[in-house]
Amino acid sequence: MNNLLIRPLQSETEAGFCAGFLAASEPWLTLGFSAEQVLQRLTDPTREVHIATRDDQIIGTLVLHLAGPLNGYIQAIAVHPDWRGRGSGTILMRFAEERIFRQSPNVFLCVSSFNHHAQQFYERLGYRRIGELENFLVAGHSEILLRKTSGPLLSFRQGT
Ligand SMILES: CC(C)(COP(=O)(O)OP(=O)(O)OC[C@H]1O[C@@H](n2cnc3c(N)ncnc32)[C@H](O)[C@@H]1OP(=O)(O)O)[C@@H](O)C(=O)NCCC(=O)NCCS
Asked: What's the Rg (C-alpha) of the chain?
C-alpha cells in the first residue's frame, strides 16, 4: 500500500486508539485481554512500539521486544480491521524484520493455535515453527513459537 508511514507511537491518544481495535480483534478476544491490559503493553517502556499511518489515520501497530533471551521478538502486530488484506501487515513485518536483522539474525514471534489466518500469513513470509507452548496464555490453547533467520548467530555481524 502506498503512502504508509511507520513511526514510533507518540501519545496516549494513539495508544488508546490502538488498544481499542486490538482488544476488539482476535486473538486478543479469545485470550481475554481487556483494552486496559492491551494499553499497558502498548505503553510498556521496555517495548518499542510503532504505528503505521496513512493520511494521519492509524492503520496498524507493531510491538517489539528487543532485549531478553529471544532478542528480536515481535510481541504484537495488528492492522485495523478496515485495512486488512491490502498489504499493510506485510509492510509492517518487513519493517520489523529490517529493524531486528540489524541486531540479530533471528526474528521470533508467537501465534495462537486458533489464529489460522495469522499462521498462514507468517508462513508466507518465511516463518518456521520452532515449538508449541501448550496452555501458555490460556487453558486449551497453545502459543506456537515461530522463527525467521538470516543465518547462524556466530556468523552474524551486527549492523550489516
Ligand atoms: C495478521 C495481520 C496483521 C495481517 O495484516 P494484513 O494487512 O491483513 O496483511 P496483508 O494484507 O499484508 O496480507 C494478508 C493477506 O492479504 C493478501 N493481500 C496482500 N496485499 C493485498 C492486496 N493489495 N489486495 C488484496 N489482498 C492482499 C495477502 O495475500 C495475504 O493473504 P494471506 O491470507 O495468505 O495471508 C492482520 O490480519 C491482523 O491484524 N489480524 C488480527 C491480529 C492478528 O492476528 N495479529 C497477529 C497476532 S500473532
From this structure: 15
Q: Ligand 1 mean position to 126 CA, how many Å? A: 14
pLDDT digits over 131-151, tens only?
A: 999 999 999 999 999 999 999
What is the domain count for the chain? 1
Domain containing residue 99 = 5-155
CATH classification at residue 61: 3.40.630.30
For residue 115 the three cell numbers come to: 489464529
> What are φ and ψ of residue 77, in 5° steps?
-140, 135
Return the residue whose CA atom lies nearest to atom 30 of ligand 1.
85
- Model pTM above 0.85: yes
Asked whether 28 lines ligand 1 (CB < 6 A), one says no
The answer to whether residue 160 is domain-embedded is: no
